[in-house]
Amino acid sequence: IESLEKQISKAFNNDIFKSVDFNPKINLSEDEKNYYIHADLPGMNKDQVKMELSDDDRVLTISGERETIIDNSNEGANANKEALKEETKKEAKKENNKKYSRIECSYGKFSRSFTLPENANLENIQAKMDNGVLEVTINKKE
């Protein structure tokens, strides 16, 4: 297996075992009073997710980054990272003294944008995160 991993890594310039863009699954729904956006963000917490609303074109953007479990030791050159990120990486490295033979989960940065309907109340948008699922509730104007 180790020989095969080396051959594959050489063929793909080591990129095959690095993180790829994370594209979370989204459910859009509505009822009489609200629009809903549900985003599956496994392993993430609310501090890792950012929401921005562009008032001029009524676009809601949800973005963030799901940290990789792969130890890329050459990433240590960036000394000006936040202390919290550094602590998280140290904990991940302790946990990641493993040799992975298969990684099916996606990691990396993501950004999803949604154009909100004309009857969406931009003044009252609520969001909550529970068990890796982000739920955004947008009230409808009466």
Description:
The protein has helices at residues 2-11, 83-95; strands at residues 26-30, 34-40, 49-54, 59-66, 108-115, 120-130, 133-140. The protein has a domain at 26-67 and 101-141: Immunoglobulin-like (Sandwich), CATH 2.60.40.790. The chain is built from two helices and seven strands. The termini are far apart. It is α+β, with helices and mostly antiparallel strands. Helix content is 16%, strand content 37%.
As residue ranges, the low-confidence spans are: 14-19, 73-84
State the CATH architecture of one domain: Sandwich
Share of helix among residues?
A: 10-25%
The CATH class of one domain, by name, is: Mainly Beta
Q: In total, how many beta strands?
A: 7
What overall form do the CA principal axes indicate? Answer: elongated
Cα-based radius of gyration, to the nearest Å = 19 Å
The assigned structural class equals: alpha+beta
Protein name: HSP20-like chaperone
InterPro entries: A-crystallin/Hsp20_dom (IPR002068), HSP20-like_chaperone (IPR008978), Small_HSP (IPR031107)
Pfam family, one: HSP20
Organism: Anaeromyces robustus
